[in-house]
């Protein structure tokens, strides 16, 4: 089955491992991800905060391309990209004046407007569907026995509510998936807190404090690692642990799925991390 695929800037740069793992997992589950041709940056995190028009026009241009390619579904692994594109789709469906203006201008530039025929989705949403979730456990060749994790959704997958595909207060998709891999999923109270990623440049001091709070909370929950579905969260938590005595790895959820599937390239994904996860994984005989 083919699905439209929008990797966004992060998955072609700082989060290449997320891209590789996502493609590997979807291939194992019977999907072919078709990358959107000539896609542009969605505008996160700078564009949408400085120009309201760009916040709509940049995502809408990608949706116009998706419609031209007859892609009924567009998968966006990056939580920031997903949030912005999902919001633009929502505004068009709601018929807001700003969306109408942006759509009209795009029609003049591209020769087509967005007609709201594309389902904007996140990999977690796709995998959790009733007809797909049953494919996961049969693919688990190497259960993640002994790996203690806390799922971290961040703020962009659950807020605002119209972008959410899971419970906004207590999301469960990653929890369920990690349990299916055999990982020991710990409970904690920080799964939808913001990582502070957008403050990385202007207020690094604040980001260090937020990272310390989150990592310390994960360790108090007896977790060995944090698992996320957002490149911004992963990069922030992976690079801001210098003040923490015992830093812990920050995984993408598809990386752990891929390891449990026994994917031969999984060890290569781990080499992209700042906090090296290989010692933890080898100690548990998972790599």
UniProtKB/TrEMBL annotation:
All copies of domain Cysteine-rich, residue ranges: 4-84, 152-238
KW Phosphoprotein (keyword) present: no
Keyword Magnesium in annotation: no
EC number: 1.3.5.-
Assigned keywords, A-Z: Oxidoreductase
InterPro entries given in the database record: Cys_rich_dom, HdrB/HdrD_reductase
Protein name, UniProt field: 8-methylmenaquinol:fumarate reductase membrane anchor subunit
